[in-house]
User: What shape does this take?
Amino acid sequence: MAVSNLQRKKYLKEFHQKSQLLLSENDRDYLYNVLKEYQTYKDVDKLVQCLISALDTPEKLDLLTNIRNLIPASHVSRFDRIAPYHRAAQPFIPPGIDANTRRPQSVGPAAGQSRSKQMPFINGRC
Assistant: This one.
């Protein structure tokens, strides 16, 4: 399902406001760089790996649901399978996922993804 431009702006505003509340300036800068890298390389596994590194408390992990709204629909399924929603302060169960059978998958290259397309490490983190 495509997200309208108006809806996307709403999601971006919510993400920005929540990140202002939860993250230090350095953490926000790092997170924004991670998201920029994701836009370039479209590597969901590396995105989640870097998010786990940056979002190091249950409260910060609540940002996963905001970030989920910002990624392309074609990547949401993979993001939902590997994102640690269960560790967030307000755990999220993605639509269509059975909470009783959901098992977090390891973060690594998705099937068919070449290593040359993976996001590089950002500023020595992740």
DSSP finds six helices and no strands in the chain. Residues 25 and 101 are 37 Å apart (CA to CA). The radius of gyration is 14 Å.
